[in-house]
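2024-03-11 09:14:02 INFO worker-7 job=invfold-0412 stage=load source=structure_tokens
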């Protein structure tokens, strides 16, 4: 566990390394946290939940950091409000890096001294939590740079790859399926408890929707046809003036998009990304199809390749039968968010290796688009 813990900590810092110092404290919108905050918050997590209660004679690096870098854990005390994270120019980036080393060294020392299983379990949650923030960092860095006037490129190995040309549909028979995490190894509490569901026959696409297909939706007036949209979605795109996926801009009659490589014409062969649930659902309606439920997605996950983009499902984010929140602050990790959000399944090209599994339940509000989200179609089959 020690070597993996150290690799996870280093990976977060490596992801941020190409940034300029000025990039670290920017928060363009409430959903985008500054990179400096991610670096500190993932460190605070280990300090708060591992070192303070379990390492004898541990001294917190700075007593103010518990207030500055708590995210949403009410059990852990007061915190800076999320919209104000970008106002903190202090502590400096340099101080945060020192903080990270201080906490990393102490956790490593704890691991070298044969801690109890409950401590190992908390450290495991901690590095899975940090891997989640690595992906959020990838989103947030792109948003910060993608809203600069010059659309600067960013040095990274994270890149989306094209889809195959033809889409086909995989038929899935009806029947009872067991949903939820059943394997050995780590899972989050929202993947529990395993339970049975009955699925009617359906078919699911063997690939994601591409930019070329989405361009056809736009050309056919998809953003002007109210009959394709949920009422909330229709109101949202009109209020926000949305007429294309996020990062898309119409330049001299041709759609361009920002990516880590800079600002270029939209590649028709890439999967369409940065779409909201509202947009994904409207596109499916335009195609005379629908989004799969999260249960349909999981039941068919071994029949197609996934991992390029998180895939919107038609399922609201709700607790499974038998779900139980952990006591204390860690019980706030997932359970309190099980309302007004939709489930995405799979993984994205920014998901750390080893952090994905077929039962993983990601979740976002239906209007959000800054994350790496895409569309897989489904259709109900005749019985």
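2024-03-11 09:14:09 INFO worker-7 stage=emit residues=383
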């Amino acid at each position: 566990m020690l070597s993996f813990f150290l690799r996870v900590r280093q990976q977060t810092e490596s992801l941020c390394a190409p940034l300029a110092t000025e990039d670290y404290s920017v928060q363009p919108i409430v959903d985008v946290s500054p990179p400096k905050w991610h670096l500190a918050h993932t460190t605070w997590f280990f300090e708060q939940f591992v070192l303070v209660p379990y390492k004898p004679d541990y001294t917190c690096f700075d007593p103010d950091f518990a207030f500055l870098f708590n995210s949403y854990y009410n059990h852990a005390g007061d915190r800076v409000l999320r919209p104000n994270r970008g106002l903190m120019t202090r502590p400096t980036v340099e101080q945060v890096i020192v903080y990270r080393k201080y906490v990393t060294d102490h956790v490593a020392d704890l691991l070298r001294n044969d801690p109890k299983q409950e401590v190992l379990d908390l450290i495991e949650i901690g590095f899975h939590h940090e891997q989640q923030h690595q992906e959020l960092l990838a989103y947030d860095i792109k948003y910060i740079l993608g809203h600069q006037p010059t659309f600067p490129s960013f040095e990274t190995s994270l890149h989306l790859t094209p889809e195959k040309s033809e889409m086909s549909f995989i038929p899935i028979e009806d029947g009872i399926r067991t949903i939820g995490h059943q394997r050995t190894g780590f899972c989050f509490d929202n993947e529990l408890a395993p339970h049975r569901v009955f699925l009617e026959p359906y078919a699911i696409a063997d690939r994601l929707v591409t930019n070329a297909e989405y361009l056809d939706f736009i050309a056919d007036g998809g953003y002007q046809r109210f009959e394709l949209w949920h009422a909330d979605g229709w109101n949202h795109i009109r209020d926000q003036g949305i007429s294309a996926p996020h990062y898309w801009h119409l330049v001299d009659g041709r759609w361009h998009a920002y990516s880590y490589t800079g600002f270029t014409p939209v590649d028709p062969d890439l999967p369409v990304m940065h779409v909201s649930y509202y947009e994904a659902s409207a596109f499916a309606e335009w195609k005379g199809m629908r989004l799969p439920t999260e249960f349909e997605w999981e039941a068919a996950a071994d029949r197609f390749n996934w991992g390029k983009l998180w895939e919107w499902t038609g399922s609201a984010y709700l607790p499974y039968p038998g779900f139980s929140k952990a006591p204390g602050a860690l019980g706030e990790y997932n359970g309190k968010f099980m309302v007004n959000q939709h489930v995405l399944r799979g993984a994205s090209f920014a998901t750390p290796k080893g952090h994905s599994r077929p039962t993983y339940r990601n979740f976002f509000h239906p209007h959000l688009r800054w994350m790496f989200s895409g569309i897989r179609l489904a259709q109900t089959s005749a019985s």
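2024-03-11 09:14:09 INFO worker-7 stage=report msg="The domain at 2-146 is CATH 1.20.120 (Four Helix Bundle (Hemerythrin (Met), subunit A))."
2024-03-11 09:14:10 INFO worker-7 job finished
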